[in-house]
Amino acid sequence: MQRSPAEGYQQASLSEQKVDGEDFIQTDVCPKAEDVILDLGCGTGELSAYLAELVGPEGMVTGVDPDKERIQLAKEGRSQIENLSFVEGSAINFPGIGAEVYDIIFSNYALHWMTNKQQVFNNMFESLKVGGKVAVQHMSYLPLFDYNAYVLLNPENAERIFRLFHFESKTKMERYCLSAGFDEIIRSFDTHCKGLVFETVQEFLEWQWSTTCGLFNPSLVTEERLKKYLAPYTDEDGKLSLDFRGTKHEKVTVCRLTAVKKDKKHL
Ligand SMILES: C[S@@+](CC[C@H](N)C(=O)[O-])C[C@H]1O[C@@H](n2cnc3c(N)ncnc32)[C@H](O)[C@@H]1O
């Protein structure tokens, strides 16, 4: 039976979103035992499950995502984990919204999928306890290798794929964060992606398909289109390198923002 885009994402995210997400969690999110965490835009839940391990049995993690199928996959095989739950919802509709119940609101590679980011930051602020932390990892631009993949390999679908994303700069995100009421930005910086290396063309095309929720269609990728796309990534000996972590081709970066809610919003 053919895989769904959500199943494809579960597999594909292991080499990119999960790698960068775990690194962010270890260096900047730093959850403590007993923390209550919201994972906003949790996808298929790999990082929510990792956070649940870190907060231990006295902590609690809730993963929220609007994609029904991804939430279904997130739940599968994890029903025994008592401090972890998954709920279909969104940045404007999640458990505990506005109720100051979370120690940490974490969001990995999801903010650039959301519109009205000021509202999203307001909701996160109002849902955190005083002393709570927001920790967001997001893309501020569409990497060139993705842009070219859509335009050269799937020109029929490129416009629709572009409409999936809502990129905004690091500075703008900081502004939303401060206007929402966060008193102190702990860190806000760009860092190189640590995943983003593809062993085969097939793996790369599947990644494009699943990360665009099935809009990128590998069957539209003709030999001729592929040849043109791959040319910059092929050396004189014909050796292909689809490595976007910081090679000569492209150094893809991602933004990390952490901030603390020291007090209720001063009106
Ligand atoms: C690239 S995936 C990241 C998933 C997961 N955080 C990870 O690291 O693997 C982006 C996710 O954001 C979700 N998303 C899109 N719009 C959203 C919204 N308005 N509120 C919450 N999540 C949203 C998508 O359904 C998708 O699962």
UniProtKB/TrEMBL annotation:
The record's annotation in PANTHER family points to: TRANS-ACONITATE 2-METHYLTRANSFERASE, TRANS-ACONITATE 2-METHYLTRANSFERASE-RELATED
Which CDD domains would you find in this protein's record?
Answer: AdoMet_MTases
One Pfam family per UniProt: Methyltransf_31
Can you give the residue ranges of the Methyltransferase domain?
33-140
Q: What is this protein called?
A: Methyltransferase domain-containing protein
